[in-house]
Amino acid sequence: MKVFVDGQYGTTGLKIHERLNQRNDVEVLSIPEEQKKDSEIRIKLMNEADIVFLCLPDQAAREALKLIINPNTRVIDSSSAFRTHDAWTYGLPELSALQRGKIANAARVSVPGCHATAFVLAINPLVQRGILPRDYPVSCHSLTGYSGGGKAFIEQYETGRFSDISDNRSHPQHYSLTLDHKHLPEMKKFTDLEFQPAFLPTVCDYYNGMVVTVPLATRLLINQPSLQEIHAALTNYYQEERFVSVIPLDDTKEISQYALDPTLSNGTNNSEILVLGNDEQVLVACRLDNLGKGSSGAAIQCMNIMLGLDEELGLILEPTK
Ligand SMILES: NC(=O)C1=CN([C@@H]2O[C@H](COP(=O)(O)OP(=O)(O)OC[C@H]3O[C@@H](n4cnc5c(N)ncnc54)[C@H](OP(=O)(O)O)[C@@H]3O)[C@@H](O)[C@H]2O)C=CC1
Ligand SMILES: CC(=O)N[C@@H](CCC(=O)OP(=O)(O)O)C(=O)O
């Protein structure tokens, strides 16, 4: 089984390589760094591979796709170019059993965005189980490390040039303040919500790790469920999943009194869902590693499913920082 990562020297590409290099069931085709944009070599490697990972900016991913002419080459794209495209399969197997089957048979799989992964995992079961009305005015917040912005953004952030104040990198900063973040279309489509959520991300001075939170007023939910009922519905939905766990309510008591650390899933492909708050206002939270389940981990998980392998293969890594 031959695999090629186009964009192997970028943030996501490097992580995918790191994960693939742990295993001996795939042959990883590599391109020298100085030739990473050489189309001739890329065409050769892409068409020789059984699986191509595209870890490129959106436009470069669209162009790379045109270079693949081998009908047997299957593609896993980590960009946001095709996530809501009908000809592509959304790479979130935990959406439903049907979705896992679609990924297994797909020739083109789009890896979900990191914020979108956490949001969809937290909210989709509540819509599917008839708890959250499809027309609910959902709002959502995300606290994220700065590696999610890719190489250029990481450099800007680490050199203090992210905003117009030069020495402010230790302060959390809201962004996407026009409220039109590029993950919104997939957040709406894969939760079956009628409207896009109001989504505000905040980037902080740490490398990786993310927690997405969605507050819900229980009096506006169908049949006014208690916090325990919401927790039970999520626990039941994910009971067979290896990479999504719903934290038992007893274990969230300390967090509720203190604080929610966004880095505790780092180095894993896990998503942890927490149900916090009280019977009137519930906060559904999802914590993941933006470099794990938010990108490279999800990409490898999809590859494993597409190849009919154990989903966990190559998915355990040491924390990054
Ligand atoms: N970082 C993250 O947490 C996540 C990223 N993603 C998505 O994954 C994709 C990759 O992101 P990320 O790894 O962060 O990005 P980076 O900017 O870190 O890496 C992209 C890599 O692709 C190279 N590249 C750019 N254009 C071309 C081209 N035309 N041909 C070949 N190589 C090219 C870049 O080289 P050079 O720098 O020299 O231009 C760089 O090495 C993006 O679409 C991003 O949105 C998705 C989820 C999370
Ligand atoms: C800190 C930061 O900027 N994070 C990125 C998340 C990147 C991601 O999930 O991936 P895609 O770019 O592939 O959608 C952002 O919010 O746009």
Question: What would you say this structure looks like, in words?
Answer:
It contains ten helices and 13 strands. With 321 residues, it is α/β, with parallel strands linked by helices. The protein folds into two domains: 2-111 and 294-306, NAD(P)-binding Rossmann-like Domain (Rossmann fold), CATH 3.40.50; 114-290, 2-Layer Sandwich (Dihydrodipicolinate Reductase, domain 2), CATH 3.30.360. Helix 1 crosses helix 10 (292-306) and helix 4 packs across helix 10 (292-306). The radius of gyration is 19 Å and the shape is globular.
The largest sheet is: 7 strands, mixed
The helix fraction, in percent, is 25-40%
Taking the alpha carbons of the first and last residues, their distance comes to 32 Å
> How are the strands ordered across the major sheet?
8-9-7-10-13-12-11
CATH fold call of the largest domain: Dihydrodipicolinate Reductase, domain 2
Count of domain modules = 2
Radius of gyration from the alpha-carbon trace, in angstroms: 19 Å
Please report the number of helical segments: 10
CATH class categorisation of the largest domain: Alpha Beta
| Helix-strand topology string | EHEHEHEEHEHEHEHEEHEHEEH
Number of strands: 13
Overall mean confidence score, pLDDT:
94
Name of the CATH architecture of the largest domain: 2-Layer Sandwich
